[in-house]
Amino acid sequence: MVPLYGGGVDGVLRVRDLDEEALLAEFVPLLPQGDAEVPVGDDAAVVPVSDGRFVVTTDVLVEDHHFRREWSSGADIGWRAVMQNAADVGAMGAVPVALVVGAVLPGDLEVEWVRALARGMAEACGAITLETGAACGVVGGDLSAGDTVVLAVTAHGDLQHRQPVLRSGARVGDVVAHAGTLGLSAAGLAALRAGREGHDDVVRVYRRPVPPLAAAVAAARQGAHALMDVSDGLLLDGGRMARASGVTLDLSLAGLLDPRVRAVAQAAGVDPLPWVAGGGEDHGFLATFAPGTLPAGFRPVGRVLPRGGQPVLVDGATPTLRTGWDHFAGG
Question: 90: helix, coil or strand?
Fold first, then answer.
């Protein structure tokens, strides 16, 4: 490592103190390479897969829009960047095997924060490998300078010779089911915004979501008719599945309120159900199955009806709750 300017005047090594090669040397060795035949270091990576098809998805995280550095550590943000993309891969019935990351970094950013970002990504890849049994790594990417932190992550998944499960396959008479948590991330965000302490469980879900990838793979193996990641809210994403499938989903929120979500809502003096129905970033999975075929990890949350006037109902009625997060409508 050769600092260009001898380090910051405060003694803290910052991004602007290194050239690109030196900065890469600070964090690339921290990143797992999965089963890459050609890992980081060449013009592109080469990754083997067992299937002749590849699942590809991408997501962007922008500082002060998707995360705040005062609320989450570099490691937390690295974890989330990997996991929210892994959830999209899982939503197709595939397992994540490789990611590439484009990062825009301000010059005043501490190099230790960048190292922590890489460590968080490595921890997330390790958790994915442990859950799915398939090696997962960060096999490449790009760096650029900018005024704020931006992470663009592309994830690749292996279908392992299964057919992809689409959101457009829900059938009338199916059971609608969900795996994972609902409302915990939204409650965690609310606790952080209010500066309330004592809600570590929900804050942890906001900072480090854990999509139930094994349950998604089990859904694909069990013959799920439709499957998708719940990243923007149960009602909003349920509506997307319903419109894609040409049906109506009739959902029930009964029994879905986690006591930890209720506790945050009570402290804030608000109704917790909008967090359950419209809170995003838990990264669970919504699926539909033929009756009697739900795999472990899924719980029934509704039924599929013929297409009606609304894509989503709650207990047979048009929902009055906030449906979910929209990046451009502001919620």
Answer: helix
Give 205's contacts (C-beta < 8 A, 6+ positions apart): 181, 184, 185, 188, 282
**pTM, two decimal places:** 0.92
Judging by DSSP bridges, how do beta strands 226-230 and 150-158 pair with one another?
A: unpaired
Q: Do 171 and 309 share a domain, yes or no?
A: yes
CATH number at residue 221: 3.90.650.10
The per-residue pLDDT for range 177-221, each reduced to its tens digit, is: 999 999 999 999 999 999 988 999 999 999 999 999 999 999 999
Strand partners, 95: 158
pLDDT digits (tens, 9 = 90+) for 1-33: 344 444 555 789 999 999 999 999 999 999 999
Clarify whether residues 78 and 198 are in a common domain.
no
Task: Check: CB of residue 317 under 8 Å from CB of residue 254.
Answer: no
> What is the domain extent for residue 123?
15-158
Residue 219 resides in a domain: yes
8 Å CB contact between 79 and 120 = yes
The C-alpha angle 196, 201, 205, rounded to 5 degrees, equals: 105
Query: Domain tally for the chain?
Result: 2
Question: Which of 6, 18, 21, 10 has its CA nearest to residue 111?
Answer: 18
